[in-house]
Amino acid sequence: MRLRDVVILGGGLAGLTAALKLKHLNLEVLDAASWIGGRTRSQRLPGGPWLNFGAQYITEDRPAVVELADSLGVELIHSEMFEDYYKLLLPEDAPTRAEVEAGIRRIEEAQSQPRPVTLPELDDVSFADWLGPMSEAAADYFDRITLLMNCASTIDLSVVGGLWVWGDQRTSPWNTDEIPHHDRGELVVAGGTSELAGALAASIGGRVSLRTRVTSVTENAEGYLVRAVGPDGERTLHARRVVCALPGPIAAQVFPDLPGWKLEALRAVRYGRWISTPIVITPAGRTAPPYPLTASRPLVRYNADGFLARTPGDFDNEGGTYHSFMADAAARVVWNDPDESIKSGALRMFLKEHPEYADRIERVELHRWELGHPQYVRGLMKHFALLAEPVGGITFAGDYTWQANMEGAVRSGERAAQQVLSK
Ligand SMILES: Cc1cc2nc3c(=O)[nH]c(=O)nc-3n(C[C@H](O)[C@H](O)[C@H](O)COP(=O)(O)OP(=O)(O)OC[C@H]3O[C@@H](n4cnc5c(N)ncnc54)[C@H](O)[C@@H]3O)c2cc1C
């Protein structure tokens, strides 16, 4: 059994960024999935476009992701599809729109007054209650936006959470001038988001073991015993230090010896489910056979965003992918439905909006994300500062310890590596 300086649990952006910063050490990254990059999973299609199953957009509030991509030579392309999503989805009828705009003004005013996020009136009250009574159509608008931005309905979110995910930046609930940003507009990763994780893995010399599920981590005389099940059966690794970049609830399961305050904090992190159903369109003139639709559920929102998220470029010349997502509320309803039914539901909604593509559907893919998005739920802020607190030789990374997006994952990985190096 070899003694590693560091074993990193989780090969998402957080774990891989930590690995990059620690690459001079004897390290290994373990990940349960069969692909690299966790929730940035994407796929390149032969000779065609790419499709993303998870993360898509690098908005201006994500400078650390841009810096990382630049340092690795990963190409980022300008994209304007998702900008102003919350204005694009505004209801059209005048009374609902007026109601919604009044709500948005109130949100923006609250965002301009920074306060401690642990105040009970911010942390313990649901965003829906704070928004107050309104028409069903207006309430639906706010619910839809918060589901899209944090996979959490206005009922799940605290007031802090609602303010955090609303608007042009999702770095903080407060809209102050100090929000770090880059000035290249909205970007996507050329070739698919997991190109970034692939470049990270290459930069650490491929020291990533996929299909390797960590089952427990316990202390011993020299550091930690990491037990895992890999493609060749059980493995035990010996490490001086551990970086845990697993989702919060899984971290709570694999470290049985953590102190109560840490377990409580990790268990307070709740995730919303996502189902992604990317829809690939052929170039114009190359028709595809009719897609074999099966039954899907009436009245279910198989798409969260009106198909805003698509690959940049000219669909008529090159084809492309529309990234369709079901947010938590709808994903829970269809979770156990057959894949074909979910794909059909997404495609029916798509064709209603884009009938021009009826004979150009090349394929529809599907990914169920059970731990899709860490939500800013009521009561989380009490524990928030403790999520990233190291315990002995274990440091913690992951978007749930910083902010719920790629920027949070990258920055948390950098911080965890710094904590390792400073001891
Ligand atoms: C549908 C969707 C759309 C999104 N859109 C955007 C977007 O447009 N922009 C944006 O910035 N962010 C977006 N995000 C969020 C972004 O993907 C995440 O914030 C980020 O990728 C999280 O990285 P992470 O390393 O913290 O976690 P993860 O990527 O979840 O990494 C955790 C890793 O741990 C592994 N793991 C789990 N259990 C075990 C175990 N027992 N043993 C070993 N390994 C284990 C998992 O396989 C995973 O690879 C989106 C997410 C989803 C799901």
Structural summary, described in words:
It is a single chain. The chain is α+β, with helices and mostly antiparallel strands and 423 residues long. It has three domains: 3-76 and 190-270 and 376-421, FAD/NAD(P)-binding domain (3-Layer(bba) Sandwich); 85-165, Guanine Nucleotide Dissociation Inhibitor, domain 1 (Orthogonal Bundle), CATH 1.10.405; 272-372, no CATH class. Helices cover 35% and strands 20% of the residues. The chain has helices at residues 13-21, 63-72, 85-88, 94-111, 120-123, 127-131, 136-150, 159-165, 194-203, 248-254, 260-267, 315-318, 328-334, 339-353, 381-387, 406-421, and strands at 3-9, 27-30, 42-44, 50-52, 57-58, 76-78, 187-189, 208-209, 213-220, 223-230, 233-244, 271-276, 279-281, 320-322, 325-326, 361-364, 367-374, 394-396. The strands form five sheets. Strands 1, 2, 8, 9, 10, 11 and 18 form a seven-stranded mixed beta sheet that branches. Strands 5-7-6 form a three-stranded antiparallel beta sheet. A three-stranded antiparallel beta sheet has the order 15-12-17. Strand 1, helix 1 and strand 2 (27-30) form a beta-alpha-beta unit. Helix 1 (13-21) runs parallel beside helix 16 (406-421), helix 2 crosses helix 16 (406-421) and helix 4 crosses helix 7 (136-150). It is globular and about 65 Å long. Residues 9-15, 30-33, 38-40, 54-57, 62, 213-214, 245-247, 250, 274, 276, 325, 369, 372-373, 398-399, 404-406, 408-409 line the site of flavin-adenine dinucleotide (FAD).
